[in-house]
Design goal:
heterodimer, A: 141 residues, mainly beta, OB fold (Dihydrolipoamide Acetyltransferase, E2P), five-stranded mixed β-barrel, B: 431 residues, Peroxisomal Thiolase, Chain A, domain 1, 3 domains, nine-stranded mixed β-sheet, two-stranded antiparallel sheet, 14 helices
């Protein structure tokens, strides 16, 4: 039987979700992209005390946002650092500046890696990676 | 009425005092009385602290061979470096009553080397701020002595990452892993991409740094890349690891260890080695490089901010960049070195490669930097690498790349940590 078995496909790295940011990931799991908005109007991509007004993190409200942003910087992986990504090379990891202010780390998809440029507009979409939901930046705006 | 309020420039207020006395003299007064009333608010209390810090010295150095050293352990390498430093200082082992170590990649050390070496350590501390740890151990050593818990502190970093075949950052499990973002090289690549975009620079510009780093190692038989020069073409033809960075934008991963002994300047004079004085420290941990902007990532923008590390170090030392004879910039990646050269003020933003092309950086140039080839070409003992070379230059032990009459050295460390970019700086001088 063993010669008919196919090797198990590599699974992606575990989705690490700090307990402080659970609402962000819970929202993703229900297809919502949210940011933490302070009472003073400043947005964050994680739970933290406000750098602008000094309010505690309890003053933050997780709020649905546009998902519109631009590529601030990016790298292209040509070598696998994890088995799951071996067959997905080359791929792009970028820092995307969202129009609400925060920057997030994500992939840029729906474009050839050679077409990615700093400053290009992107749109956050929610996609599946293995058993997890993640946010990715689509070049199709 | 306070004539010398703290916000006033003392040069101006002293001129006013002088004018007031002259006026009093013209008006016919025969005596003038000047009183001094100092408040904590008005006085720069840091002066006292700087004085305390400047009364310490590095009084021993131990550097093991660097390279591929199979059949050993990180703890054994640490022990070897301790023995070399004890021997260099000529100190009785039981007198060393403080031990600070940075655990590295590969096997992580745990302080056992201090007990095998039979040090008399009252405290064994671990410092881990990644590449910034070297100078942080030095600062912490002074803290232990200042607190009265130790007189002689051994600081050590050892790694056997090369024999352990560690790929730094591989298979990690952090928030970024699910996006396939791994390794400090990728974080540095983010910086490099931003730098190239903002200043219209290219990979071939960063190559200048790699070539100059190698140039400095070529004459050094203690360097891993001894006698192996490279060219810009070699850099450009080396494979991409994480675009835009090529293999030769990356530092080495090697096995080896470095230890140094910290004590008071007074005690250092009683030891056999040439002490190296400490003129000023600076640190910054720009938690905000990413997080201040709310990014769940650790990366610097195109313009690396080294404040307040730079101003603290130079302010304490009372020196300017023009007073430094030799520089040792942290060089985990070419971009990290380039950004620091600019941020510390040796050239304008975006012009590091031009500055190197203009004949700077090489050990035999007007501005000698990284005179052993450091992380790129000498060996990978993280921030200890730069401290060791700074110490050697000031002791006149730089061998074939010794800078003539080197009396002052700037040493910088940079750590890419989970909580942001950590930086530390120290200005060393001949005692």
């Amino acid at each position: 039987m063993s010669d008919t078995e196919t090797p198990a496909a590599p699974v992606p790295p575990r989705r690490v979700t700090p307990v402080e940011d659970q609402p962000f990931w819970d929202a993703l799991d229900t297809a919502n992209f949210v940011l933490a908005r302070c009472a003073c109007g400043t947005y964050y991509a994680r739970s933290q005390a406000c750098l602008r007004c000094g309010a505690t993190a309890s003053a933050l409200t997780w709020t649905p946002v546009s998902g519109r942003g631009t590529v601030r910087t990016f790298v292209v992986f040509d070598k696998p650092y994890h088995p799951y990504f071996k067959e997905r090379l080359p791929y792009v990891v970028a820092v995307v500046a969202l129009e609400e202010g925060p920057e997030i780390t994500t992939n840029v998809i729906d474009a050839d890696v050679s077409a990615i440029e700093i400053g290009m507009p992107v749109r956050i979409i929610i996609s599946a990676r293995g058993e997890y939901k993640i946010h990715q930046a689509s070049a199709r705006v | 009425m306070p004539l010398h309020p703290p916000e006033r420039n003392y040069v101006e207020t002293l001129k006013e005092d002088r004018a007031a006395i002259l006026l009093a003299d013209e008006l016919g007064f025969v005596e003038a009385f000047i009183s001094e009333h100092v408040t904590d608010f008005a006085e720069d209390v840091r002066v006292a602290r700087i004085h305390a810090m400047q009364s310490y010295a590095i009084a021993g150095l131990g550097v093991t061979p660097q390279g591929i050293i199979p059949g050993t352990s990180a703890e054994k390498l640490a022990w070897d470096a301790i023995e070399l430093a004890l021997n260099d200082a000529g100190i009785e082992r039981s007198k060393v009553n403080g031990y600070i170590y940075q655990p590295g990649f590969g096997e992580r050390t745990s302080g056992v080397a201090a007990s095998r070496a039979a040090l008399g350590a009252n405290s064994t501390l671990q410092i881990d701020s990644s590449g910034a740890s070297g100078i942080f151990t030095l600062i912490t050593a002074i803290g232990l002595i200042e607190a009265g818990t130790a007189e002689y502190v051994m600081c050590v970093h050892a790694t056997n990452a090369r024999s352990q075949a560690v790929t730094v950052g591989a298979g990690g499990q952090d928030q970024n892993s699910i996006f396939g973002l791994f390794s400090p090289g990728a974080q540095s690549g983010m910086m490099a991409r931003g730098y190239m975009h903002k200043y219209n620079t290219a990979s071939a510009d960063l190559a200048e740094l790699a070539v100059a780093l190698r140039y400095n190692a070529v004459p050094r038989s203690d360097a891993y890349m001894f006698n192996r020069p490279i060219t810009v073409d070699d850099h450009q033809n080396s494979p991409f690891i994480v675009r835009p960075l090529h293999l030769f934008d990356y530092c080495l991963v090697t096995d080896g260890a470095i230890a140094f002994l910290v004590t008071t300047a007074e005690r250092a004079r009683d030891l056999q080695t040439t002490p190296v004085a400490l003129l000023g420290f600076g640190t910054c941990h720009e938690v905000g490089q990413g997080y201040r902007r709310g990014a769940n990532t650790v990366l610097g923008p195109a313009d690396l901010d080294v404040e307040p590390a730079r101003s603290q170090a130079f302010g304490s030392a009372g020196l300017g960049i023009e007073d430094i004879d030799v520089f040792q910039f942290y060089d985990a990646f070419t971009i990290i070195a380039a950004l620091q050269i600019e941020a510390y003020g040796l050239c304008a933003r975006g012009e590091a490669a031009d500055w190197v092309r203009a004949g700077n950086f090489r050990w035999d140039s007007k501005h000698p930097c990284n005179t052993s080839g450091t992380l790129h070409s000498w060996g990978y003992v993280q921030g200890f690498t730069h401290l060791a070379e700074g110490i050697r230059q000031l002791r006149g032990e730089g061998g074939p790349t010794q800078v003539p009459d080197a009396r002052t050295a700037l040493v910088t460390n940079v750590g890419i940590t989970a909580a942001g970019l950590a930086q530390s700086a120290v200005i060393l001088s001949t005692a």
